[in-house]
Design a protein that fits this description.
It is a single chain. Helices cover 45% and strands 14% of the residues. By secondary structure, it is α+β, with helices and mostly antiparallel strands. The relative contact order is 0.11. The protein is built from 4 helices and 4 strands, in the order ααβββαβα. A 4-stranded mixed beta sheet has the order 3-2-1-4, with helices on one face.
Length: 155
């Protein structure tokens, strides 16, 4: 039986990393178009009555804005400006919604850790396959050599 080549595993991991890199570049490049308006332009649109709907996300201090002409954009707002912003939206009779603060810190930590854990599991699987199956992943220090004595029969 032919043993699998470690070169194949290295090539497979390299191809996987290349595909992940290209996919992240393609996905991150999709949103680039006309530059989004800034916060001061949002305030000008709000006072001029050109804003139809706003969704506030206080956890990331971001506003998702829909203008009356159907244009959608996202803009950040300064610290401690939420109460003033809420009052301005109410005075200008703009429909708005506020999203929750978000999940716990543990959930965010687990989401961040998940890709590394998956990569580690995949790596262990590859090492297991390279050693011909079984549970030989960490048996690199065990010698299979047998000691031969002078008295033993040679068969």
């Amino acid at each position: 039986m032919r043993r699998p080549s470690p070169r194949r595993a290295i090539i497979a991991v390299g191809l996987l990393l290349l595909v992940a890199f290209v996919a992240s570049r393609v996905i991150s490049g999709l949103g680039h178009g006309a530059p989004a308006p800034g916060f001061s332009q949002f305030l000008g649109d709000l006072s001029a009555g050109r804003v139809a709907q706003v969704t506030m996300a206080p956890s990331v201090q971001e506003l998702s804005v829909v203008s009356k002409d159907g244009r959608k954009y996202t803009v950040g707002y300064p610290d401690n400006f939420g109460r003033q912003l809420t009052n301005d939206l109410t005075q200008n009779k703009v429909q708005f919604d506020v999203k929750g603060r978000g999940g716990s810190a543990w959930w965010g930590f687990l989401i961040t850790l998940a890709p590394f854990a998956l990569f580690f599991i995949f790596w262990i699987f590859l090492m297991n396959q390279m050693q011909g199956g079984g549970s030989k992943v960490m048996s690199f220090g065990k010698s299979r050599a047998k000691r031969m004595s002078v008295d033993s029969p040679k068969i």
